Amino acid sequence: MKIGMIGTGRMGRILAARMAEAHTVFLYDTDTAGAKKVADSLQLTAVASLAELNVDAVVLAVPDSAIGPCLAELKATGKSWKVFSVATNISREMLAGLAGEKVQCLNVKLIGHAGEMNRGEKPVIVVDAGDNDMIRHAQQIFATVGSVLVGNADQVKLINGVATEEALKASVAIETVLRAAGITDPEMLRGALSQVAPGVLRAYSEDDLGPFARNIVNALHDKAGQ
Protein backbone atom coordinates (compact mmCIF):
# COMPACT_ATOMS: atom_id res chain seq x y z
CA MET A 1 0.00 0.00 0.00
CA LYS A 2 1.17 3.54 -0.72
CA ILE A 3 0.93 5.81 2.32
CA GLY A 4 1.46 9.54 2.67
CA MET A 5 2.83 10.57 6.08
CA ILE A 6 2.00 14.20 6.77
CA GLY A 7 4.22 15.50 9.54
CA THR A 8 7.84 14.50 10.06
CA GLY A 9 8.25 15.37 13.72
CA ARG A 10 9.11 12.77 16.35
CA MET A 11 5.92 10.72 15.98
CA GLY A 12 5.80 11.06 12.20
CA ARG A 13 9.35 9.74 11.91
CA ILE A 14 8.61 6.75 14.16
CA LEU A 15 5.39 5.87 12.34
CA ALA A 16 6.95 6.26 8.90
CA ALA A 17 9.87 4.00 9.77
CA ARG A 18 7.60 1.25 11.05
CA MET A 19 5.05 1.51 8.26
CA ALA A 20 7.84 1.37 5.68
CA GLU A 21 8.49 -2.22 6.79
CA ALA A 22 5.35 -3.27 4.89
CA HIS A 23 4.32 -0.28 2.75
CA THR A 24 5.68 2.39 0.44
CA VAL A 25 5.74 5.61 2.45
CA PHE A 26 6.00 9.17 1.16
CA LEU A 27 6.70 12.07 3.52
CA TYR A 28 5.34 15.59 3.51
CA ASP A 29 5.86 18.49 5.91
CA THR A 30 5.51 22.26 5.57
CA ASP A 31 9.20 22.26 6.52
CA THR A 32 10.24 20.79 3.18
CA ALA A 33 13.95 20.81 4.00
CA GLY A 34 13.29 18.99 7.27
CA ALA A 35 11.08 16.44 5.51
CA LYS A 36 13.81 15.81 2.92
CA LYS A 37 16.34 15.25 5.70
CA VAL A 38 14.06 12.77 7.48
CA ALA A 39 13.24 11.01 4.21
CA ASP A 40 16.94 10.62 3.41
CA SER A 41 17.66 9.20 6.86
CA LEU A 42 14.88 6.62 6.44
CA GLN A 43 15.59 5.99 2.74
CA LEU A 44 12.12 7.21 1.83
CA THR A 45 10.79 9.84 -0.59
CA ALA A 46 9.67 13.35 0.38
CA VAL A 47 7.25 15.42 -1.68
CA ALA A 48 7.08 19.20 -1.81
CA SER A 49 3.27 19.52 -1.81
CA LEU A 50 0.19 17.49 -0.90
CA ALA A 51 -0.95 17.66 -4.53
CA GLU A 52 2.07 15.52 -5.44
CA LEU A 53 0.89 12.65 -3.24
CA ASN A 54 -0.53 9.73 -5.21
CA VAL A 55 -1.28 7.33 -2.38
CA ASP A 56 -3.88 4.91 -1.05
CA ALA A 57 -4.12 6.61 2.33
CA VAL A 58 -2.79 9.53 4.34
CA VAL A 59 -1.72 9.56 7.98
CA LEU A 60 -1.80 12.89 9.83
CA ALA A 61 0.96 13.07 12.42
CA VAL A 62 0.74 16.81 13.03
CA PRO A 63 -0.17 19.06 16.00
CA ASP A 64 -3.89 19.41 16.78
CA SER A 65 -3.94 22.95 15.38
CA ALA A 66 -2.67 21.72 12.00
CA ILE A 67 -5.37 19.07 11.45
CA GLY A 68 -7.92 21.55 10.05
CA PRO A 69 -5.51 23.30 7.65
CA CYS A 70 -4.16 19.94 6.41
CA LEU A 71 -7.63 18.64 5.65
CA ALA A 72 -8.57 21.91 3.98
CA GLU A 73 -5.50 21.61 1.75
CA LEU A 74 -6.37 18.02 0.90
CA LYS A 75 -9.93 19.06 -0.02
CA ALA A 76 -8.53 21.81 -2.25
CA THR A 77 -6.72 19.24 -4.42
CA GLY A 78 -10.09 17.90 -5.60
CA LYS A 79 -8.83 14.34 -5.18
CA SER A 80 -10.34 11.57 -3.05
CA TRP A 81 -8.51 10.79 0.19
CA LYS A 82 -8.62 8.26 3.01
CA VAL A 83 -7.22 10.11 6.02
CA PHE A 84 -6.20 8.69 9.39
CA SER A 85 -5.44 11.08 12.23
CA VAL A 86 -3.31 10.08 15.23
CA ALA A 87 -3.95 13.32 17.14
CA THR A 88 -5.01 12.31 20.66
CA ASN A 89 -7.05 15.45 21.37
CA ILE A 90 -9.13 15.47 18.18
CA SER A 91 -12.46 13.79 18.94
CA ARG A 92 -14.60 11.74 16.56
CA GLU A 93 -17.06 14.64 16.22
CA MET A 94 -14.32 17.19 15.58
CA LEU A 95 -12.74 15.05 12.86
CA ALA A 96 -16.12 14.35 11.23
CA GLY A 97 -16.76 18.09 11.08
CA LEU A 98 -13.50 18.58 9.19
CA ALA A 99 -14.07 15.78 6.67
CA GLY A 100 -15.52 16.36 3.21
CA GLU A 101 -17.32 14.63 0.36
CA LYS A 102 -14.04 13.33 -1.04
CA VAL A 103 -12.11 13.26 2.22
CA GLN A 104 -12.93 10.30 4.47
CA CYS A 105 -11.48 10.55 7.97
CA LEU A 106 -10.98 8.16 10.87
CA ASN A 107 -9.22 8.54 14.20
CA VAL A 108 -6.47 6.05 15.01
CA LYS A 109 -5.02 6.81 18.44
CA LEU A 110 -2.01 5.39 20.23
CA ILE A 111 -1.82 4.29 23.84
CA GLY A 112 1.89 4.77 24.07
CA HIS A 113 4.82 7.12 24.53
CA ALA A 114 6.98 8.42 21.69
CA GLY A 115 10.17 7.96 23.69
CA GLU A 116 9.36 4.32 24.43
CA MET A 117 8.36 3.72 20.82
CA ASN A 118 11.67 5.21 19.73
CA ARG A 119 13.35 2.58 21.91
CA GLY A 120 11.49 -0.18 20.13
CA GLU A 121 8.38 -0.64 22.28
CA LYS A 122 5.09 -1.19 20.46
CA PRO A 123 2.03 0.83 21.51
CA VAL A 124 -1.59 -0.28 21.65
CA ILE A 125 -3.39 1.26 18.69
CA VAL A 126 -7.11 1.99 18.91
CA VAL A 127 -8.86 2.29 15.55
CA ASP A 128 -12.10 4.17 16.00
CA ALA A 129 -15.38 2.45 15.20
CA GLY A 130 -16.80 3.60 11.88
CA ASP A 131 -16.78 2.72 8.21
CA ASN A 132 -15.69 -0.91 7.76
CA ASP A 133 -13.54 -0.17 4.71
CA MET A 134 -11.69 2.59 6.57
CA ILE A 135 -11.19 0.27 9.55
CA ARG A 136 -9.69 -2.42 7.30
CA HIS A 137 -7.30 0.12 5.80
CA ALA A 138 -6.27 1.31 9.26
CA GLN A 139 -5.63 -2.24 10.43
CA GLN A 140 -3.37 -2.88 7.44
CA ILE A 141 -1.53 0.43 7.73
CA PHE A 142 -0.82 0.25 11.47
CA ALA A 143 -0.15 -3.50 11.75
CA THR A 144 3.63 -2.97 11.85
CA VAL A 145 3.36 -0.13 14.37
CA GLY A 146 1.82 -1.97 17.32
CA SER A 147 -1.06 -4.05 18.62
CA VAL A 148 -4.20 -2.94 16.76
CA LEU A 149 -7.75 -3.10 18.11
CA VAL A 150 -11.06 -1.49 17.16
CA GLY A 151 -12.94 0.51 19.77
CA ASN A 152 -13.74 3.99 21.02
CA ALA A 153 -10.62 5.95 20.11
CA ASP A 154 -11.82 8.97 22.09
CA GLN A 155 -11.08 7.02 25.29
CA VAL A 156 -7.36 7.20 24.53
CA LYS A 157 -7.21 10.85 25.61
CA LEU A 158 -8.38 9.87 29.11
CA ILE A 159 -6.14 6.79 29.22
CA ASN A 160 -2.99 8.67 28.24
CA GLY A 161 -3.88 11.62 30.45
CA VAL A 162 -4.50 9.52 33.57
CA ALA A 163 -1.40 7.39 32.97
CA THR A 164 0.76 10.48 32.48
CA GLU A 165 -0.54 12.36 35.53
CA GLU A 166 -0.42 9.37 37.88
CA ALA A 167 3.08 8.39 36.68
CA LEU A 168 4.31 11.94 37.33
CA LYS A 169 2.69 11.94 40.78
CA ALA A 170 4.48 8.68 41.55
CA SER A 171 7.78 10.05 40.22
CA VAL A 172 7.54 13.17 42.37
CA ALA A 173 6.56 11.07 45.39
CA ILE A 174 9.52 8.70 44.91
CA GLU A 175 11.97 11.58 44.63
CA THR A 176 10.45 13.38 47.64
CA VAL A 177 10.60 10.30 49.90
CA LEU A 178 14.17 9.45 48.89
CA ARG A 179 15.38 13.02 49.39
CA ALA A 180 13.69 13.10 52.80
CA ALA A 181 15.68 9.95 53.65
CA GLY A 182 18.90 11.77 52.76
CA ILE A 183 19.37 10.21 49.32
CA THR A 184 20.22 13.10 47.01
CA ASP A 185 22.81 11.67 44.63
CA PRO A 186 21.45 12.40 41.10
CA GLU A 187 22.52 9.02 39.73
CA MET A 188 20.82 7.14 42.56
CA LEU A 189 17.63 9.11 42.04
CA ARG A 190 17.81 8.55 38.30
CA GLY A 191 18.24 4.83 38.83
CA ALA A 192 15.16 4.65 41.02
CA LEU A 193 13.09 6.62 38.52
CA SER A 194 14.42 5.18 35.26
CA GLN A 195 15.05 1.56 36.27
CA VAL A 196 13.19 0.40 39.36
CA ALA A 197 9.90 2.27 38.92
CA PRO A 198 9.42 1.50 35.18
CA GLY A 199 10.42 -2.12 35.75
CA VAL A 200 7.82 -2.52 38.47
CA LEU A 201 5.14 -0.89 36.31
CA ARG A 202 5.96 -3.21 33.43
CA ALA A 203 5.91 -6.28 35.70
CA TYR A 204 2.54 -5.18 37.10
CA SER A 205 1.08 -4.67 33.61
CA GLU A 206 2.31 -8.13 32.56
CA ASP A 207 1.22 -9.83 35.80
CA ASP A 208 4.83 -10.79 36.49
CA LEU A 209 5.40 -9.35 39.97
CA GLY A 210 7.60 -11.12 42.49
CA PRO A 211 6.34 -12.07 45.98
CA PHE A 212 7.56 -8.83 47.60
CA ALA A 213 5.85 -6.61 45.04
CA ARG A 214 2.74 -8.79 45.01
CA ASN A 215 2.36 -8.37 48.78
CA ILE A 216 2.54 -4.59 48.34
CA VAL A 217 -0.17 -4.72 45.66
CA ASN A 218 -2.40 -6.86 47.85
CA ALA A 219 -1.98 -4.44 50.75
CA LEU A 220 -2.81 -1.48 48.49
CA HIS A 221 -5.93 -3.25 47.22
CA ASP A 222 -7.01 -4.02 50.79
CA LYS A 223 -6.52 -0.38 51.74
CA ALA A 224 -8.56 0.75 48.74
CA GLY A 225 -11.28 -1.76 49.59
CA GLN A 226 -10.94 -3.67 46.34
Describe the structure.
It is a single chain. By secondary structure, the chain is an alpha/beta fold. The chain folds into two domains: 2-153, Rossmann fold (3-Layer(aba) Sandwich), CATH 3.40.50; 158-224, no CATH class. Helix content is 52%, strand content 18%. It has nine helices and eight strands. The chain has helices spanning 10-19, 32-42, 64-76, 92-98, 114-118, 132-142, 155-180, 186-205, 211-224; strands at residues 2-6, 24-28, 45-46, 57-60, 81-85, 103-111, 124-128, 147-151. Strands 3-2-1-4-5-6-7-8 form an eight-stranded mixed β-sheet, with helices on both faces. Strand 5 (81-85), helix 4 and strand 6 form a beta-alpha-beta unit. Helix 7 packs across helix 8. The radius of gyration is 21 Å and the shape is elongated. The protein starts with a strand and ends with a helix.
